[in-house]
Structures are given as structure tokens and as C-alpha cells.
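Sample pair:
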Amino acid sequence: MLPHTPIGKWAHNLLAHDGYHVGQIILLRKLQGSWPARRSFE
């Protein structure tokens, strides 16, 4: 858990912001059909 300090709040906001945009990218790629249905982790 992040501390309730200015740096902790900053880090939390940064992670939330980046997570939001990652979700947007995934959604857009799925809508345009460029997101693979199955991923290989070999």
C-alpha cells in the first residue's frame, strides 16, 4: 500500500492515469480488430 504522503499520492495518481490509458488502448485495438484473440507466452 502506498503511503499517504505527497509522493505516495503522486505515485497512485500516476498508476491510475497510466492504467486508464492502457485500458483505452486495449479497447480501441479490440474495436479495430488488431488485438489478438489468444496470446502466446512462449
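The mean pLDDT is 88.
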